[in-house]
Amino acid sequence: MSLQENGPSIAIVGVTGAVGQEFLSVLSGRNFPYSSLKLLASKRSAGKTQLFENQQYTIQELNEECFDGVDIALFSAGGSISKKFGPIAVEKGTIVVDNSSAFRMVEGVPLVIPEVNPEAMEGIKVGSGRGGLIANPNCSTIICLMAATPLHRRAKVTRMVVSTYQAASGAGAAAMEELLQQTREVLEGQEPTCEIFNQQYAFNLFSHNAPIMSNGYNEEEMKLVKETRKIWNNMDVKVTATCIRVPVMRAHAESVNLQFENPLDENTAREILSKAPGLVIVDDRSANRFPTPLEVSNRDAVAVGRIRRDVSQEGDYGLDIFVCGDQIRKGAALNAVQIAEMLL
Ligand SMILES: NC(=O)c1ccc[n+]([C@@H]2O[C@H](COP(=O)([O-])OP(=O)(O)OC[C@H]3O[C@@H](n4cnc5c(N)ncnc54)[C@H](OP(=O)(O)O)[C@@H]3O)[C@@H](O)[C@H]2O)c1
After folding, report:
1. Could you tell me if 113 and 164 lie in one domain?
2. What is the mean pLDDT of the chain?
3. Is 17 near ligand 1, meaning CB less than 6 Å away?
4. What digits encode the pLDDT tens for the residues 234-270?
5. Domain CATH number, residue 117
6. Domain span at residue 60?
7. Per-residue model confidence (pLDDT) at position 3
8. Could you tell me if 97 and 154 lie in one domain?
């Protein structure tokens, strides 16, 4: 991040959380220009200090006055905080980039992955004198669409089947801590402490903890269904998903099966993916080396591999791929900062 008199004034809401801390790291790493920085969290954190680029900041309790004079606010403090304070910030002329699901499906609110649909936020700029809201998609949706979109542009996806293997980090800092603690406890022969997930997570896996809906899907799965349609601006694409939590500390993995309207062979797909921004191919069949959550942790790029023709479909109309991405980074903080960069 670089302190510049004519840069925007920035606020980070939820700065003490897993995503909030990553915001700081990404802003710093990308040399984002700023004239001032406000760090906001709950009452619990108010008064604590945060060192950032050799300067000590005091964390303030979020309240309605916090947004006076703020150009861009990066929100990651949960849906209810976004619902309450997002509109207040917008009213004060702030452009809010929101990481929660509060506004993603609201008509007129752009839902943006910069590599995929930057046009959705066209015309929203700092300095226009108007506030605004831009939603960051769900982390699994971002990671999936980073790889699926370049193929979709070439051959048009008609149906997509996604199975996820989601890390503890997706549920925040406390969930990461619980996975560590449970692992220690199980190794020491003690009963694991189950406060965040209500069941043993270490040495186990389970269906995603998001609430189950009346159609039997959980909310995380339906986010993949609905957000894909909005981001691709295509209400006809058929998407189904099964979301699973696995005892990985950080970075999600996803198996994605694609069906196309037009033929797309494996080699052309590999070539398209090799040129796609924000993606790296890890697809070494001879060495059995493919993307892993560990290798993408703390990295910007989403990794894609296991690129192969789906033998259950006729001709070249189906592909299977496997993607891994750091969901605190590209699935949240990095994507939001990329959106903020487009506001300048
Ligand atoms: N983790 C991910 O990969 C991910 C990805 C995409 C989107 N998101 C979304 O980002 C948001 C935060 O996720 P997280 O994983 O970073 O969670 P987290 O680690 O639990 O952090 C939550 C943050 O919200 C703050 N907060 C809670 N109650 C507050 C209040 N009343 N007023 C002000 N601040 C409050 C917390 O501050 P205190 O420390 O003071 O309590 C903390 O900074 C959620 O909406 C989540 O869905 C997360």
Report:
1. no
2. 97
3. yes
4. 999 999 999 999 999 999 999 999 999 999 999 999 9
5. 3.40.50.720
6. 2-137+332-342
7. 81
8. no
